[in-house]
Design goal:
The chain is an alpha+beta fold. Helix content is 28%, strand content 27%. It has one domain.
């Protein structure tokens, strides 16, 4: 994905914004990319059963995970939610994010809770054709937006530290994928990250507040 600079200036508010994180992220993707750019793929590497657990295990064996998450083993973590749960219809509510007075609904690819620390990791997987050396250190706006929504999930409101990871996969050929050796990461308490994404959410037509009336069903 070739990112447009200052894309927010010309961003068009959707006429009927949907109250789910993936729709917001898709809007950010559409508004922030250059027309005709095909370097980035929105498609997902959908895993099943043993493949999901193997990918998690391999992720924690990477130097990146050891350096950034201070963990080198899946044994440190409890697998709380996978995309398989999402495909089965399991969603989480983010009550403080509203679209037309309705709470935002979220279904991350992966939620992990540390067994000893009051810490959680939320992972969103994306596939890309961009070489690792050309992936921007700050990540792509739509990945930031989607993970930011997940950081507001009610279910994780009591967690002291929430780490947000954009896990990138290279699409090799056919059904062949390989995990990139670097990933983008943010933390829920990152003020600059929060301000940036909350501004995008407002452009989308959303309302963010910690003191709202009960949401409509």
């Amino acid at each position: 994905m070739t990112k447009k600079y200052n894309w927010e200036i010309s961003a068009k508010k959707p006429t009927n914004p949907k109250n789910n994180a993936s729709s917001f992220a898709q809007w950010v993707y559409k508004e922030s990319k250059h027309t005709g750019s095909k370097l980035y793929s929105e498609s997902k590497y959908k895993q099943k059963g043993k493949a999901t657990h193997l990918a998690i295990d391999n992720f924690f064996r990477m130097k990146w995970a050891e350096n950034n998450l201070e963990s080198d083993s899946i044994s440190d973590w409890i697998i709380d939610h996978t995309e398989i749960d999402g495909r089965a219809g399991k969603y989480y509510k983010a009550s403080n994010l509203r679209i037309n007075s309705k709470s935002l609904y979220c279904s991350p690819d992966l939620i992990l809770r540390h067994k000893k620390k009051n810490q959680a990791v939320i992972i969103e997987r994306k596939t890309t054709f961009v070489p690792s050396s050309l992936i921007p250190a700050s990540g792509w706006p739509n990945v930031q937006a989607q993970l930011w929504c997940y950081s507001w999930i009610d279910y994780l409101s009591d967690v002291e530290e929430v780490i947000l990871v954009g896990q990138l996969w290279h699409h090799m050929r056919g059904e062949a994928f390989t995990m990139c050796d670097i990933h983008t990461m943010w933390k829920r308490d990152d003020k600059e990250f929060n301000e940036r994404c909350s501004n995008w959410f407002k452009l989308y037509g959303g309302v963010l507040s910690e003191h709202l009336e009960p949401a409509l069903i």
